[in-house]
Specification:
The complex is a heterodimer of chains A (about 425) and B (about 80). Chain A is built from 14 helices and 14 strands. By secondary structure, chain A is α/β, with parallel strands linked by helices. Chain A has a single domain, classed as 3-Layer(aba) Sandwich (Peroxisomal Thiolase, Chain A, domain 1), CATH 3.40.47.10. In chain A, the strands form three sheets. Chain A has a ten-stranded mixed beta sheet with strand order 4-5-6-1-7-14-13-8-9-11, sandwiched between helices. In chain A, a hairpin with a 3-residue loop joins β13 and β14. The longest helix of chain A is centred in the first third of the chain and has 17 residues. Chain A is globular, with a radius of gyration of 20 Å. The two termini of chain A are about 30 Å apart. The N and C termini of chain B lie close together (about 10 Å). The model of chain B has no long low-confidence stretch (mean pLDDT about 90). Chain B has four helices and no strands. Chain B is globular. Chain B has one domain. With about 80 residues, chain B is mainly α. Classes of the chains: A alpha/beta (about 425), B mainly alpha (about 80). At the A-B interface, loops of A face α2 of B.
Chain lengths: ~425, ~80
């Protein structure tokens, strides 16, 4: 029987855009100052029937450093991802000989593709009664795998390219795919992550489902309240996150600075309701990732929760966490600061989890004032905590009952 | 009229494809000299159609090689303003 290779997977580069900062220093400062990235959207004032006119917005509009030949087929969703990955590769120190190698691959996702372009395209088709004068590059900017496809072209990827488009778990599954590709020997380096561009349609979609935080248009900073008794729903947000994953010996041989290790990953599915979360499914994926990492719940020093601040989701998640960990593991959802970054969330929150380990800094649950008595008893972080930890877990859950759990640990030889 | 059309074509190529105005002249080949590819060609035609309220038939595209070819196609086919 063929021996299955089991190799260590380390992180050697990160890059991101978020509503609360685009560097680790900015992030930490936002967490320390309890600074929110959510604001009122005057741009959406004219949209009829949209109750929640608030969002987490990234402060970047200049993408001119992306060559025009690449930029022409990119929506904002791909451009934020492209610059995030560029920064991550620069930090990793990898040269072109590795980036453009058969053993280097890519896995990126988003929830919606290029929604802004898709909206404009559909409006043009409807307005012109057809396809005359439609831009030839529009589809390439809005297609569901626009991020992975455009990044592969821009960076010259010739290894595997696996787009993930599972909404809120898109970039967590991208990290998992990259991790498994390296662990099981198919690749030596994987560029992974995800992205999401902001559009009012996204807000409207969740508004229609009764899932957005309403009643906070005059007070956006307090809108996103994971685990709080007075939460009313999520706040839509945008952003991007990219990580360079590398096989340990490969990184060591070139003297790379190793930021952390991906110790475990699992993904699973509820196979039941299309939107209602399943406590059993969440519990299962956490246990499976622990098993994959060869760890016990006691080894995990912090949990970065998915908790989007929807009334039911937070309760189910808290109960699943309680079943696996009991009540003593520190836990926070950073969506109180950022809102829900959808396809970027898994990657960005994994980067925050890495920050928590490396900086010995566990971010708080912003706006958690009064615990929801229906949530399980856990060590919710009401304020940030400075604490040394060796490993932490990041969980994400998506419509369709798709669940992911990623374990990051402090790098040791 | 030709000068007017030429200047508009030049303006669109400069803006849309981020080319230097100095790089554009009648005899410049769109693909070989200006580096446009098939996607760029479609987008250029799309922009010109919007500007002149005119529809390029697909076979007309095959006869376009240079900046001057585009200008001539437009001059010969668009109604005078």
């Amino acid at each position: 029987m063929k021996q299955v290779q089991m190799r260590r997977v380390v992180i050697t580069g990160i890059g991101f855009y978020s509503p609360i900062g685009n560097s680790i220093e900015e992030l930490k400062s936002s967490f320390l100052d309890m600074k929110s990235g959510i604001r009122y959207m005057p741009e959406w004032e004219h949209i009829n029937g949209l109750d929640a006119k608030i969002a987490g917005v990234v402060a970047v509009d200049d993408f001119s450093e992306i060559p025009r030949a690449n930029r022409r087929t990119m929506d904002r969703v791909a451009m934020m991802a492209a610059l995030s990955l560029k920064r991550a590769i620069v930090q990793s120190g990898l040269g072109d000989e590795v980036v453009k190698h058969e053993r280097t691959g890519l896995s990126f996702g988003s929830a919606m593709g290029g929604l802004e372009t898709l909206f404009d395209y559909a409006a043009n088709v409807a307005g012109n009664d057809g396809f005359g004068r439609q831009n030839a590059t529009a589809f390439l900017r809005f297609m569901s795998h626009t991020v992975a496809a455009n990044l592969a072209v821009m960076f010259g990827i010739i290894g595997r390219n696996i787009p993930t488009s599972s909404a809120c778990t898109a970039s967590a599954q991208a990290i998992g795919t990259g991790y498994e590709s390296i662990k099981y020997g198919m690749s030596d380096v994987m560029f992974v992550g995800g992205s999401e561009g902001l559009h009012f349609v996204e807000a409207g979609i969740f508004d229609s489902m009764g899932a957005t935080a309403v009643g906070y248009n005059d007070n956006p900073l307090e809108a996103s309240r994971p685990f709080d008794a007075n939460r009313s729903g999520l706040v839509v947000a945008e952003g991007a996150g990219a990580l360079v994953l590398e096989e340990y010996e490969h990184a060591k041989a070139r003297g790379a600075i190793i930021l952390g290790e991906v110790a475990g990953y699992a993904t699973g599915c509820d196979g039941s309701h299309i939107t209602l979360p399943s406590e059993r499914g969440m519990e299962s994926v956490m246990r499976e990732s622990l098993k994959d990492a060869g760890m016990s719940p006691d080894d995990i020093g912090y949990i970065n929760a998915h908790a989007t601040a929807t009334p039911k989701g937070d309760i189910y998640e808290s109960m699943a966490v309680h079943k696996v960990f009991g009540e003593n593991t520190p836990i926070s959802s950073i969506k109180g600061f950022t809102g829900h970054m959808f396809g970027a969330g898994g990657a960005f929150e994994t980067i925050v989890t890495l920050m928590a380990i490396n900086e010995s800094f566990l971010p708080a649950n912003r706006n958690l004032v009064e615990m929801d008595p229906n949530c399980a008893k856990l060590d919710y972080l009401f304020t940030h905590r400075e604490q040394d930890i060796d490993a932490a877990m990041n969980n994400n859950f998506a419509f369709g009952g798709i669940n992911t759990s990623i374990i990051i640990k402090k790098f040791k030889e | 009229m030709r000068d007017e059309v030429y200047n508009k074509v030049k303006e669109i190529i400069v803006e849309q494809f981020e080319k230097s105005p100095d790089a554009i002249s009648d005899d410049k080949r769109l693909v070989e000299d200006l580096g446009l590819d098939s996607l760029d060609m479609f987008d250029l035609i799309c922009a010109l159609e919007a500007e002149y309220d005119f529809h390029f038939e697909r076979e007309m595209g095959s006869s376009i090689g240079t900046v001057g070819d585009i200008v001539d196609q437009l001059v010969n086919n668009i109604p005078a303003k």
